[in-house]
Design a protein that fits this description.
The structure holds two protein chains of two kinds.
Chain A (H helix, E strand, L loop, with lengths): L3 E4 L2 E4 L5 E7 L5 E7 L5 E8 L2 E5 L6 E7 L2 E6 L8 E8 L10 E2 L3 E5 L1
Parallel strand pairs in A: 2-11
Antiparallel strand pairs in A: 1-3, 3-8, 4-5, 4-9, 5-6, 7-8, 9-10, 9-11
Chain B lengths: L3 E3 L4 E4 L4 E7 L7 E6 L6 E6 L3 E5 L2 E6 L4 E6 L8 E8 L5 E3 L3 E6 L1
Parallel strand pairs in B: 2-11
Antiparallel strand pairs in B: 1-3, 3-8, 4-5, 4-9, 6-7, 7-8, 9-10, 9-11
The chains are: A mainly beta, B mainly beta.
Chain lengths: 115, 110
């Protein structure tokens, strides 16, 4: 039974399009995250929600908008896609916030290719 | 300069060898130290977790933290081809965010 699942697995789209990625966790965790992993494997946090409240909002273009309808779901909508948005996007969750020492559980990523 | 530095490798070792991985970090306020393993086309998974200086052992894996030198290490004994993966260190910074190293790709050859 998958703990953190995200859809779609692969997303190929053209520049200028709008797309969404969905994430769900069945671990009962309070906190969810979006990370971006570039071609050099570097993982960078984008957003974090705790019980549906936005708590981390890194310097990310405002074309990226997260939404958390409930604490088990965190979606990511991207407007006007650009070539530089091509990356693997990982959803993750943690029991509590990471400043309290909680570790992350990751999904298997969404590979976004913008052409 | 990144807050967490990690050599990206690749690091190639023969089966049975000891794999030694390390990261350095910039801020002595960082407090929780983790190692994640990421197989190709998968998400990272937690391998080791510690919050104090010293060694922590789990099977073939040993995590070492030296807070005075701001240096953390992961050792894999008796390495197997199934250990071939990217290993990422992760450290909770003074704002509570988990900062990842760049990841070291490890290849264990039979």
């Amino acid at each position: 039974d998958t703990a953190v699942s995200q859809t779609p697995k692969y997303l190929v789209t053209q520049m200028g399009n709008d797309k969404s990625i969905k994430c769900e966790q069945n671990l009962g965790h309070d906190t969810m995250y979006w990370y971006k992993q570039d071609s050099k494997k570097f993982l960078k946090i984008m957003f974090s929600y705790n019980n549906k409240e936005l708590i981390i909002n890194e310097t990310v273009p405002n074309r990226f908008s997260p939404k958390s309808p409930d604490k088990a779901h965190l979606n990511l909508h991207i407007n006007s896609l650009e070539l530089g948005d091509s990356a693997v996007y990982f959803c993750a969750s943690s029991r509590v916030r990471t400043e309290l020492g909680s570790s992350l559980h990751f999904g298997n990523g969404t590979r976004l290719t913008v052409t | 300069q990144k807050e967490v530095e990690q050599d990206p490798g690749p690091l190639s070792v023969p089966e049975g060898a000891i794999v030694s991985l390390n990261c350095t970090y910039s801020n002595s306020a960082f407090q929780y130290f983790m190692w994640y393993r990421q197989y190709s086309r998968k998400g990272p998974e937690l391998l080791m977790y510690t919050y104090s200086s010293g060694n922590k052992e789990d099977g073939r894996f040993t995590a070492q933290v030296d807070k005075s030198s701001k240096y953390i290490s992961l050792f894999i004994r008796d390495s197997q081809p199934s250990d071939s993966a990217t290993y990422l260190c992760a450290i909770t910074d003074s704002w509570g965010k988990l900062q990842f190293g760049a990841g070291t790709q490890v290849v264990v050859t039979p």
